[in-house]
Amino acid sequence: MVVLQGCIPSYKFNGSALNYDIYKTIDITEFPIRAALVYPPLQQTFENKLLDTVTRQTRLQEIDGNADLEMTGEITGYSLSPQSVGEDAYATETRLTITVRVKYTDTKNPSNDIDQSFSAYRQFSSTLMLTDVQDDLCNEICDELVNLIFNATLGNW
């Protein structure tokens, strides 16, 4: 009987497609709100979710300045729009849309650089007050935005 040791390939599917021999650090700056309509907790919620995702799904060390990868941006949109008009000509649903502009810089390989806007939305019943659903909606939308951003940058899909 032949025993092969150390010949079995091992793969770790953590969502990241980074070569950790090349990339060791990332600098994620603040994402200030530049939207016309401002919901102050949104900035902290988004930044925490982005940093948490990068920390959990990569081995990159987050530092300030001079990193292998840099992620900067701003929250450019926070808007409400009526959807699904009912028979009384009033909206039965409202859509909350959040847009984030991200500039991703790969100092080792500039062909990977991205300067792009990402948007996500959730709809809620117009019978509800925004203040009653705003925190939950923002959390859900931020989760989706962070996934979109991660896949377009560090996921390198």
Can you give keywords for this protein?
32% strand, 25% helix, alpha/beta, five-stranded mixed sheet, 157 residues, 2 helices
Structure overview:
With 157 residues, the protein is of the alpha/beta class. It is 25% helix and 32% strand. The protein is built from 2 helices and 5 strands; from the N terminus they run βαββββα. A 5-stranded mixed β-sheet has the order 2-1-3-4-5, with helices on one face. A hairpin with a 5-residue loop joins strand 3 (69-85) and strand 4 (91-106). Helix 1 (41-57) runs parallel beside helix 2. The radius of gyration is 20 Å and the shape is elongated. The model is unreliable at 1-14 (pLDDT under 50).
- Uncertain segments: 1-14
Number of beta strands = 5
CA radius of gyration is 20 Å
Structural class estimated from helices and strands? alpha/beta
Which outline best applies? elongated
Mean pLDDT level: 89
Topology as H/E string? EHEEEEH
> How far apart, in Å, are the first and last alpha carbons?
42 Å
- How many DSSP helices? 2
Strand fraction band? 25-35%
The level of helicity is: 25-40%
For the biggest β-sheet, the strand order reads 2-1-3-4-5
Largest sheet: 5 strands, mixed
Short description:
The protein is α/β, with parallel strands linked by helices. It has helices at 41-57, 130-152, and strands at 25-28, 61-62, 69-85, 91-106, 114-125. A 5-stranded mixed beta sheet has the order 2-1-3-4-5, covered by helices on one side.
